[in-house]
Amino acid sequence: MRFLEDLDPEQREAVTYGEGPLLVVAGAGSGKTRVLTYRIAWLLASGRAQPHNVLAVTFTNKAAREMAERVEKLLHGPLRGGFVGTFHRFALTLLRQYPEKVGLPPRFAIADEDEQRRLVEQVLKELGIPSTQLSPRAARAAISRWKNGSSSAVSASELVSAVVERYQERLQAAGAVDFDDMLVLAVKLLAEDAGLRQILRQRFTYLLVDEFQDTNPVQMELLWHLAGPRPNLTAVGDEDQSIYRFRGAELEHILRFEHTYPGAKVLTLGNNYRSAEPILKAAAAVIAHNTRRRPKLLRSCSGDGEPVRVLAAADESDEAGLVVADIRRERAAGRTSIAVLFRINALSRPLEAELVRWGVPYRVVGGVRFWDRAEVRDALAYLRLLANPDDELAFLRVVNVPARGLGAVTLERLRQAAQIWGCSLCEASRRLPETLTPRAREALARFWELLDSLRQQAGGSLRELVAALLEQSGLAAQYDTREEEDRARLANLDQLVNAAAEAEQRGLTLPSFLDEVALLSEADAETAPQSVLLSTLHAAKGLEFDVVYLVGLEEGLLPLMRGEEPELADEEEERRLLYVGMTRARKKLVLTWARSRRLHGETRTTRPSRFLAELPPEVRREGLTSPSPLPHWEPKPLVRPRQEAPAPEARNGFRPGMKVEHPTFGRGVVLQVQASGAQTRVVVFFDRAGKKTLLPSVAPLKVLSAPRG
Ligand SMILES: Nc1ncnc2c1ncn2[C@@H]1O[C@H](COP(=O)(O)OP(=O)(O)OP(=O)(O)O)[C@@H](O)[C@H]1O
């Protein structure tokens, strides 16, 4: 087995470990995926297993494909009969084989995203739940959390339980499963059918799991049923790269592996083959601040390299300018493996504009290009209708966005009316034909009234027009939930306001702005392999580049916040995201932040991310004065998150604006009061520490003075 020579001694020990549960836990770039792949090859080449005995699972199709390809390359032949794929693919294979055992019809359907959304909307309507109480998006997210056994879903409200129940009934009636159901039903199948469990355990004698830190409770249960009492389960992972808490991943799974599988061997890998020493040291210094982790040592095998740099920019355009100028220098020097990473998609827009300006080819992963994002396209369709009330495509796109009960029947009747009158569809809809229901006529009248009133502003400020549109049309309010995805969508809409403000400054009017946007979308479908990659931190997981820029390292953006101090677990998750981003770099790493940033259509002064203070002293800081003398940045959401009004007595008399004193932190100002039941928690800005702190109890606080009223 010549291929074992490609491994270092620690990797070789893991690859050739014998029977029983094994956890390989190691830092980024230490060759964990390599270990898993080589282990499969070794099991087969040594005759311990036949291909059909191997079940290797991971989280993305791409990762699974790469793993299978690597094994085949090592073995110089195809891997027939073994299973290398995602958890979902494995579950679906099982369900397709035994649908009747879990009450599914033989040819059950899989509801796609769009169908799920429509189903949830229907359910909310049937149950008479207004979107102000539970929006369809929040309901969908709650259903998913509930199905995935997320601990945050355990206390789901009665409302959510009722929605889940009805949604499930509807799905079943339609003979369909959704994505989450696949795993849940596969677990049910295995839990209830001892015979099948036995068959599978006899067949799959070796289980291997990559990215183990991202497993959710349902996936853990699936593994548990497959593994049996004497499992040959090999898990590889890194708790420092666990970044899918919002999808139900639980850190406990990797931290408590030895408790779940008693007698498990835990091995670590100490060499890092990816990043130069300064990058590794900087990343290690940051992640060391997390509490829920196993301490790890990583040695760089790639030599010294350039020092890590932190750049402070004046604002987001300046930041994009600095980054793109540096990218151009790197490309001129022959480096083409380059990525720019950010916490939320909305940050890509100024970068895209700058890259387009300089003709630098780029591609966006982890999301559609800014201008192609659904919420941005919806807003643009409204703008197009403002510019041209007969833009039929725009009309069709948004006449029922947000939902106002103008469905297929209404559209069909409008089409008929347009034909009889010989006018456009839009014109027919403005004439409110008698054939429509009174509700539809009312809704259409309101739709055109909104557009008319907005059109009166169309000659004025473009920025104000877009902001008013987002507010008055309800486009922004649709995403007023606490869900990660929705926060990103709201941020994208904010970015559209910024883009309008910039266009206005350049003297563009509404029609010329729309033309420019249309050309932008068409012009740059460039996807050359040597293009710069723009990606969210989440989507960059598992990738590596020579040069990495991490932008937007500011309080509120990383850690991502909407108005309140993150809980410890959230702060640690955000730190892990930064760690994942930093460790994508092989040779050069640059971190940037902007002293002011347009957010929510307004320019605000910002503070550098708290994580920047955790970098070691040898990191080069340029254009920085520390600590920032600027006023504290208080993020203001475009749409304020709904807050339950607490009972006045629960607030213990605390109010925002109160001056208080804490025995340890000194004097500060109350920014926020959170109350539930008898418990009161307050967010206080402490002058001495210069940061906001969420206090779990108000008991130690002394009130110095209170604001009037
Ligand atoms: N023994 C080795 N010799 C040379 N290169 C290696 C060795 N082991 C791993 N590498 C290289 O190091 C890089 C990281 O390996 P791999 O992706 O397997 O690491 P990982 O631990 O899964 O990383 P991450 O957790 O950050 O995604 C790859 O480019 C891989 O080819």
UniProtKB/TrEMBL annotation:
Q: Name the chemical reaction catalysed here.
A: ATP + H2O = ADP + phosphate + H(+); Couples ATP hydrolysis with the unwinding of duplex DNA by translocating in the 3'-5' direction
Q: What is its EC number?
A: 5.6.2.4
Q: Which UniProt keywords apply?
A: ATP-binding, DNA-binding, Helicase, Hydrolase, Isomerase, Nucleotide-binding
* Keyword Transmembrane applies: no
Report the superkingdom from the record: Bacteria
Question: Which stretches are tagged as biased composition: Basic and acidic residues?
Answer: 633-643
* Alphabetized Gene3D superfamilies for the sequence: 1.10.10.160, P-loop containing nucleotide triphosphate hydrolases (3.40.50.300), PCRA, domain 4 (1.10.486.10)
Per the database record, which ranges form the UvrD-like helicase ATP-binding domain? 5-276
Gene Ontology cellular-component terms listed: cytosol
Q: Which InterPro entries does this entry report, sorted A to Z?
A: DExx_box_DNA_helicase_dom_sf (IPR013986), DNA_helicase_UvrD-like_C (IPR014017), DNA_helicase_UvrD/REP (IPR000212), P-loop_NTPase (IPR027417), UvrD-like_ATP-bd (IPR014016)
Using the record's annotation, list all stretches that form the UvrD-like helicase C-terminal domain.
277-542
Q: Which family does it belong to?
A: Belongs to the helicase family. UvrD subfamily.
Q: Can you say what this protein is called?
A: DNA 3'-5' helicase
What is the species listed in this Swiss-Prot or TrEMBL entry?
A: Thermoanaerobaculum aquaticum
